[in-house]
C-alpha cells in the first residue's frame, strides 16, 4: 500500500531506514496533476531501485509575478491513485510552509545555464527549480533521480548543479512523451481549448520541419528558424517567446547545424505557454530523434 508523508522529519526517517537496510532509492519530483509523461518517469525510476519515492509539490519559488501559481492545475487524490497504480512506495506531499518556513532566505543560483531559453523570460524560474530540487535531494536522499527531457534546460541545470556541488545522486533523463497528435505532454495542456489545439501542434510540426530540413542538407540556422517561425505564425493565438537552435550542452546559439544541435522553443497559445524541443543532429552527424 502506498505511503503518504508530508513532513521533512518523517521523510528523512524513512529514507534513513531504507539506507540502513542498503535499499536503493529512486526519486521522481513532480508538481502533480500527473499525466503519461510523469508516469513514464516513474516507470523508469521503478526499474532503477528498490524503493520509489515521488514528490508532489507546486513550488512557489519558481513562479514569477503574474504567472499561474494560484491556478496551476491540482488534483492530489487522482495523483495518489496514479502513483498507487504504478507501485510508488511513498509520496512526499509537503506543505509550502514545510519547505519554505517563515524567514526563509537561501536559494541556489547557477551563473550561466539559466541565461538562455526559458530563463530569459522567466528570470526567477531556475533559481526556484534548483533550490527546491536541492532541498528535496537532501530530504529524500535518493541514489537516483529521474527528470524529463521535455524540460531540457531544467535537466541540464540539475545535472550541472549535481556535478558542481558534488551531489552523489545519479541524474537520469527520460525521453519526451507525446499525445497521439504529437503534442508534448504537459500539465498545462489542460488549459488549451479545442480551437487552440491546431496552434499548439505547430510546436511539434515546426520541430519535424526543421529535422527534415537538416536531413536534406540545410545547415543555416537562420533559414531553418525562418521556416519554423512562418509555420507557427500561420495559426492564430500564437506568440513566440523563443525559437532557437543551440549547443545541447551549453545552450549557446548556433549559426550552422554542423554539430550536435538542439532546437528548442516556447510559444504562448492564447494564455498558455508551451515548450518543446528536439535534437536535430546527433553525435553521428545524422538528423536525430527527440
- For the terminal residues, how far apart are their CA atoms? 35 Å
CATH fold-type name of the largest domain: Rossmann fold
Q: Determine the fraction of residues in helical runs and give it as a percent range.
A: 25-40%
The CATH architecture of the largest domain can be given as: 3-Layer(aba) Sandwich
| Biggest sheet: strand arrangement | 1-4-3-2-5-6
Overall spatial form: globular
Residue runs with pLDDT of under 50 for 5 or more positions: 285-290
Question: What's the β-strand tally?
Answer: 9
Number of helices: 10
Q: β content, as a range?
A: 15-25%
- The averaged pLDDT comes out at 96
Instruction: Compute the number of structural domains.
Output: 2
Instruction: Report the top-level CATH class of the largest domain.
Output: Alpha Beta
Amino acid at each position: 500500500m502506498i505511503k503518504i508523508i508530508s513532513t521533512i522529519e518523517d521523510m528523512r526517517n524513512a529514507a534513513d531506514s531504507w539506507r540502513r537496510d542498503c535499499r536503493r532509492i529512486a526519486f521522481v519530483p513532480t508538481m502533480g496533476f500527473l499525466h503519461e509523461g510523469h508516469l513514464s518517469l516513474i516507470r523508469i525510476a521503478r526499474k532503477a531501485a528498490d524503493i520509489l519515492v515521488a514528490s508532489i509539490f507546486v513550488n512557489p519559488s519558481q513562479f514569477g509575478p503574474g504567472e499561474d501559481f494560484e491556478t496551476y492545475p491540482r488534483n492530489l487524490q487522482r495523483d495518489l491513485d496514479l502513483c498507487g497504480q504504478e507501485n510508488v512506495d511513498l509520496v512526499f506531499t509537503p506543505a509550502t510552509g514545510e519547505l519554505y518556513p517563515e524567514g526563509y532566505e537561501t536559494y541556489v543560483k547557477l551563473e550561466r545555464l539559466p541565461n538562455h531559453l526559458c530563463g530569459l523570460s522567466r528570470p526567477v524560474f531556475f533559481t526556484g527549480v534548483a533550490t527546491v530540487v536541492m532541498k528535496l535531494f537532501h530530504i529524500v536522499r535518493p541514489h537516483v533521480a529521474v527528470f524529463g527531457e521535455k524540460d531540457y534546460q531544467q535537466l541540464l541545470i540539475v545535472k550541472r548543479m549535481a556535478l558542481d556541488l558534488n551531489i552523489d545522486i545519479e541524474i537520469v533523463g527520460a525521453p519526451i512523451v507525446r499525445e497521439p497528435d504529437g503534442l508534448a505532454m504537459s500539465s498545462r495542456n489542460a488549459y488549451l481549448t479545442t480551437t487552440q489545439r491546431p496552434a499548439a501542434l505547430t510546436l511539434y510540426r515546426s520541430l519535424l520541419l526543421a529535422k527534415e530540413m537538416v536531413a536534406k542538407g540545410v545547415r543555416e540556422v537562420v533559414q531553418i528558424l525562418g521556416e519554423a517561425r512562418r509555420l507557427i505564425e500561420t495559426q492564430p493565438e500564437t506568440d513566440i517567446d523563443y525559437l532557437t537552435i543551440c549547443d545541447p550542452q551549453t545552450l549557446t546559439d548556433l549559426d550552422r547545424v554542423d554539430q550536435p544541435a538542439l532546437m528548442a522553443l516556447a510559444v504562448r497559445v492564447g494564455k498558455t505557454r508551451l515548450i518543446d524541443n528536439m535534437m536535430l543532429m546527433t553525435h553521428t552527424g545524422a538528423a536525430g530523434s527527440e
